[in-house]
From TrEMBL:
Localization per record: Cell membrane; Membrane
Keyword flag Cytoplasm: no
UniProt-listed GO biological process terms: signal transduction
Source species of the chain: Temnothorax curvispinosus
GO cellular component, one term: plasma membrane
Family per record: Belongs to the insect chemoreceptor superfamily. Heteromeric odorant receptor channel (TC 1.A.69) family.
Keyword NAD on entry: no
Gene Ontology molecular-function annotations: odorant binding; olfactory receptor activity
Key words of the record: Membrane, Olfaction, Receptor, Sensory transduction, Transducer, Transmembrane, Transmembrane helix
Protein name: Odorant receptor
Gene name of the encoded protein: LOC112459450
InterPro entries: 7tm6_olfct_rcpt
Transmembrane stretches, start-end: 60-82, 126-147, 177-205, 255-283, 295-317
Lineage: Eukaryota, Metazoa, Ecdysozoa, Arthropoda, Hexapoda
Length: 386
């Protein structure tokens, strides 16, 4: 029996990074991974500063894109660590919700459906990101293998990502060790990025399941009222459940607000960088293979933005269902001293459930459309100028 909206894959990842409650030496796990991230960031930015030339613009943009993704993931993990107590509170509330749902078959059925969707989404997101990242990291090796010429210099072998070390890395077997190490670390970074995105979706699905439960209870209480003429205790339970939904929504907003803001800014920058590489690849000899590699990464970043915007849009739509279900209650058949409770529930329902980007704008389809318009306009200008 499924007893959590958070999938086992996400739980393993959160335990590995030290975010899951009750993990021994969680601080050591988090500091170890963050230390490797900082070391990678130093050498990545060192490459950018040493290749800050107009003649190497393509390499500069390519390195800037991968470095920006690393920086975004690093900041996300820092923010999640700072708000880990809020995260633990959210998990405790979710566990209490599941404990209550087990006793009611209808409620358990609703939450099980949400959990299945969450588990499928988490696995699909992790698989897609892993495949896209593997194509992007190994794409240059495929291009070099296909377009291998007599002028190819074996001493100028390329690492999976644009990075510069202060020591020699071209000689074997050191080069092969660095290739494997960088590839595994990049895949681990992609795994952490997929875990954070899957976590947002899992929390939103859990909250939407609680909204569906409270809407179902409103429909049931109307029939109970008609038959027995008393529903004061049932209204009290619904008010308490509604308060928990609002509290959980506020905690999710507090946890992901600044993460969403960085996601919008950083991903817009990365999309523009990928657009530049796409335009360059179209006019190059190796355009077909470089284009495929870049387009896969482009859609991977777009999907990442889409998922968080979809989560915010879906949460807002679900929040409106509470007001609608409350309004459709036959309040005219309920005693006046009890029907007044419905007014207060309607007033509380006006508080919109949403995920905002730094409390400045809601994450919705409108935000996603604005990001796509900006990136497409940028690519069109580059194509006209090239």
């Amino acid at each position: 029996m499924i007893t959590s909206t958070v999938s086992p894959t996400l739980i393993i990842g959160l335990r590995f990074f030290g975010f899951w409650p009750g993990v021994s030496y969680s601080t050591i796990y988090w500091l170890s991974f963050m230390s490797t991230m900082l070391i990678m960031q130093y050498f990545q930015y060192l490459y950018i500063f040493n290749h800050l030339k107009t003649s190497e613009l393509t390499n500069l943009v390519d390195s800037l894109m991968t470095t920006s993704i690393y920086s975004l993931t690093f900041l996300k993990l820092v923010i999640l660590w700072i708000h880990r107590r809020v995260f633990h509170t959210i998990l405790a509330d979710m566990e209490n919700d599941w404990r209550e749902c087990i006793n009611v078959d209808q409620h358990l059925h609703i939450m099980t459906i949400k959990a299945n969707i969450s588990h499928f989404f988490s696995s699909s997101l992790l698989s897609f990101n892993a495949i896209a990242s593997a194509f992007y990291l190994l794409g240059d090796y495929v291009i070099r293998f296909i377009f291998l010429t007599k002028d190819y210099n074996a001493t100028l072998r390329q690492l999976p990502m644009k990075i510069q070390f202060p020591f020699e890395t071209q000689q074997s077997p050191m080069f092969e060790c660095f290739v494997v190490s960088l590839f595994l670390h990049a895949m681990l970074q992609v795994w952490s990025m997929a875990i954070l995105n899957g976590l947002i979706f899992a929390l939103v699905l859990h909250l939407s399941g609680q909204v569906d439960i409270i809407c179902q209870e409103f429909r049931n209480i109307s029939r109970t009222t008609l038959l027995y003429g008393s529903s004061l205790s049932s209204f009290g339970v619904l008010v308490e459940r509604h308060n928990r939904i609002i509290s959980l929504s506020e905690n999710i907003e507090k946890l992901f607000s600044f993460i969403a803001l960085m996601q919008v800014v950083w991903n817009t920058l990365v999309i523009c960088c990928l657009g530049f590489i796409i335009i360059i690849s179209i006019h190059n000899e190796t355009g077909v293979f470089a284009l495929v590699k870049t387009v896969i990464a482009y859609f991977s970043i777009i999907m990442e933005v889409f998922f968080i915007c979809f989560a915010g849009e879906y949460l807002g739509l679900k929040g409106n269902l509470i007001a609608r279900a409350t309004y459709e209650t036959p309040w005219y058949d309920i005693p006046s001293n009890q029907s007044k409770i419905i007014i207060f529930i309607l007033l509380r329902s006006q508080k919109r459930l949403a995920i905002t980007a730094g409390k400045m704008m809601d994450m919705s389809f409108e935000t996603f459309t604005s990001i796509m318009k900006a990136s497409v306009s940028y690519i069109s200008v580059l194509n006209a100028m090239y």
